[in-house]
Design brief:
The chain is an all-alpha fold. The protein is built from ten helices and two strands, in the order ααααββαααααα. It has helices spanning 8-12, 20-33, 47-64, 67-89, 120-128, 134-143, 148-155, 159-166, 176-190, 194-207; strands at 108-110, 115-117.
Length: 209
């Protein structure tokens, strides 16, 4: 079954059109990463969380790692995507994404879904930030001119979870193993240093009362 806030391809960190060989390799890499023999994994997760994550990796591979079950899963995933696209098409034209220009004016940059004016002071602030929380991520997303709905569509993260992250309302978020995956998506879309930001955010999350 396709979950609302993630799919099995995201669990294995592969695109939906990945070859079976790529999925197989990603599965073994994920298992190695979250192995109890890897001491670094406990910098971010408790023993129970590591166990839950390994179970999810096995669940994902049991479905998309085999052609027959993968075909059924892909049909369900495609139906969910189509449903989302139909819902978007019913919205007003002003809510749709504008095509990004091929040629940028001086002083502008692109993300996957937006164009924004580069602010040297903001760039310096981003690079110097030591404590990463949801408010910081929201500030960077806004600076890079990315609407929350566009971010949700791009990453397949439920909007309610994005709201919760950006308002530090962690009580309604899923398990930390999923939150960590969400923060990785933030880093990739916003062009942030993944190692530094993920570590800082997860430390902040753990220290919240």
């Amino acid at each position: 079954m396709v979950k609302e806030s993630y799919n099995y391809y995201q669990v294995l960190d592969v695109p939906p059109d990945a070859s079976q060989q790529t999925i197989h390799q990603a599965y073994h890499q994920a298992k190695a990463t979250y192995s109890s023999e890897n001491p670094e994994v406990y910098q971010f997760f408790s023993q129970n969380e590591v166990h839950d994550w390994v179970d999810l990796i096995e669940e994902a591979y049991a479905v998309v790692g085999h052609p027959n079950t993968r075909r059924d899963y892909d049909r369900e995933l495609d139906a969910l995507i189509q449903q989302s696209q139909n819902s978007q098409s019913s919205a007003s034209q002003t809510d749709s994404l504008e095509p990004l220009p091929n040629d940028l004016p001086d002083g502008y940059a692109l993300t996957a879904v937006s164009q924004y004016k580069v602010d040297p002071k903001m760039e310096e602030f981003i690079n110097a930030q030591d404590l990463v929380d949801g408010l910081f991520l929201k500030k960077v997303r806004s600076y890079k001119n990315i609407e929350l709905t566009d971010f949700s569509n791009l990453t397949c993260i439920a909007i309610r979870h994005l709201y919760a992250i950006e308002n530090n309302n962690f009580s309604i978020l899923p398990a930390p193993v999923f939150v960590r995956g969400y923060i990785i998506q933030y880093c990739r879309v916003l062009g942030l240093n993944e190692d530094r930001v993920v570590k800082s955010f997860m430390n902040f999350l753990r220290n919240e009362p």
